[in-house]
């Protein structure tokens, strides 16, 4: 007995062929994607190498720096670099705070980009231990060291208390204020009307006399003095407490 012949629907054969082609296309596409991705530099690798550069920079601080990078455009398609990236600060005078890095590939391709970064660097700096009044001369009790983000200190700071010897408050300062060259000044060593010692230096030979200061001055400043013997007004440089040096 003959088996009945089953006719195949040509449309089903066509759909099956299309399905096979679609599967093959998807497989080829998936195989091609990793190859294409490998042709481009990973943005994540750029950020990682940038962070490693910043963290290895020799900041004079006992504390690790904090690093925050700007966003890289996700549309960037940079040719993969076959060597470690070359990274440096766009400006060596600004290695912390809001600054930027220049990143380039040194081999087989010529691309370069600027990456904005914010870097916080901490150090122990001198601050006012108590409120200070204008003209107050600093002593050990008036100073304490405090961990501070120096990237925010635009007016400088003092990292050692010995550098504050002989300085006084330029204005009233609140407790905890960072001490800087802007809010401190050398104390007056000669005051107007004060009797001072005049030291005349002539070719290594020193002659001392006395006089009356006609103005106040600090270390290294010029000051006018009336000589007590001759009554002549001379000008010299403050060289110490109540001392004025005159060089001929």
Word description of this protein:
This protein has 248 residues and is α+β, with helices and mostly antiparallel strands. The protein is 17% helix and 35% strand. The chain has helices spanning 10-38, 43-55; strands spanning 66-69, 86-89, 97-104, 112-120, 122-128, 143-149, 167-169, 184-186, 188-190, 195-202, 205-213, 217-218, 222-227, 233-240, 243-247. It has a five-stranded mixed beta barrel. It has a four-stranded antiparallel sheet with strand order 1-4-3-2, covered by helices on one side. The longest helix is centred in the first third of the chain and has 29 residues, at 10-38.
Q: In angstroms, what separates the terminal alpha carbons? A: 140 Å
Largest sheet: 5 strands, mixed, barrel
| Total count of helical runs of at least 4 residues | 2
Shape: elongated
Low-confidence stretches: 1-8, 10-35
| CA radius of gyration | 37 Å
């Amino acid at each position: 007995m003959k088996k009945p012949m089953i006719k195949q629907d040509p449309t089903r054969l066509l759909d099956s062929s299309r399905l096979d082609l679609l599967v093959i296309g998807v497989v080829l596409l998936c195989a091609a994607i990793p190859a294409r991705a490998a042709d481009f530099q990973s943005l994540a690798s750029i950020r990682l190498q940038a962070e490693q550069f910043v963290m290895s920079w020799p900041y004079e601080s006992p504390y690790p720096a904090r690093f925050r990078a700007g966003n890289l455009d996700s549309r960037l398609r940079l040719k993969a670099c076959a060597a470690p990236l070359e990274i440096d600060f766009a400006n060596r005078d600004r290695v912390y705070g809001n600054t930027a890095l220049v990143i380039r590939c040194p081999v087989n391709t010529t691309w370069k980009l600027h990456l904005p970064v914010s870097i916080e660097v901490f150090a122990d700096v001198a601050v006012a231990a108590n409120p200070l009044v204008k003209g107050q001369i600093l002593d050990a009790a008036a100073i304490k060291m405090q961990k501070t983000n120096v990237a925010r200190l635009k007016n400088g700071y003092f990292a050692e208390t010995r550098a504050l010897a002989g300085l006084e408050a330029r204005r009233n300062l609140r407790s905890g204020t960072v001490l800087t060259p802007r809010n401190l000044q050398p104390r007056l060593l000669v005051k107007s009307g004060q009797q001072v010692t005049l030291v005349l230096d002539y070719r290594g030979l020193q002659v001392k006399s006395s006089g009356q200061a006609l103005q106040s001055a600090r270390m290294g400043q010029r000051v006018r003095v009336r000589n007590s013997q001759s009554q002549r007004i001379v000008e010299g440089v403050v060289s110490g407490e109540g001392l004025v040096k005159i060089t001929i």
